[in-house]
Amino acid sequence: MTSNTRRTFFKIAVLAIAAFFVFIWNKLILQHLNTIQHSKTVVPFNKNKVVSFYDNYIVVNQNETTTVLSTRCSHLGCKINELENGKLVCPCHGSEYDLSGKVIKGPAFKNLEVIPSKVISNGESIEIGN
Ligand code: FES
Asked: Cβ(43) to ligand 1 under 6 A?
């Protein structure tokens, strides 16, 4: 092995190791840090709207079911606050989720967090969190 070949092999090995650690950091650590505790809060409920965005929550009301999702993208935590063609789209890197919070398109691979909730006050409000 010449010194040039050795040097090239060493560079490739260092890049491969760095790529491995970036992959592990993203997949195993950052995406799991996105799960946060939600203290109890109450927001108004508009049963005529399919999707309502609040500061930390997305309320989805369809098929007689109300689901509350976190606005934090499961990739790196950007705030999702727009609906495009029936999908929740992250403005940072373009991950897409369906209205149940399931990932449709990456880079995120983890679904949006579903937050426990219940409709209260004769259907006027939603209590979110535990
Ligand atoms: S933070 Fe949402 S796709 Fe990267």
From this structure: no
- Bridge-based pairing state of the strands 57-62 and 65-70: antiparallel
Q: Which residues are registered as beta bridge partners of 59?
A: 52, 68
Among 70, 71, 76, say which to mutate for ligand 1: greatest number of ligand atoms within 8 Å of CB.
Answer: 76
Cα(80)–Cα(73) distance, integer angstroms: 6
| Ligand 1 atom closest to 107 (CA) | 3
Ligand 1 within 6 A of CB of 60: no
Residue 51 beta carbon below 6 angstroms from any ligand 1 atom: no
* Residue 31, pLDDT score: 58
Model confidence over 61-76: pLDDT tens digits? 988 888 999 999 999 9
pLDDT given for residue 28 in this prediction: 61
Q: What is the pLDDT of residue 1?
A: 66
In the predicted model, residues of the chain with pLDDT beneath 70 are 1, 24-38
CB count, 10 Å around CB of 130? 10
Say yes or no: domain 41-128 is CATH 2.102.10.10.
yes
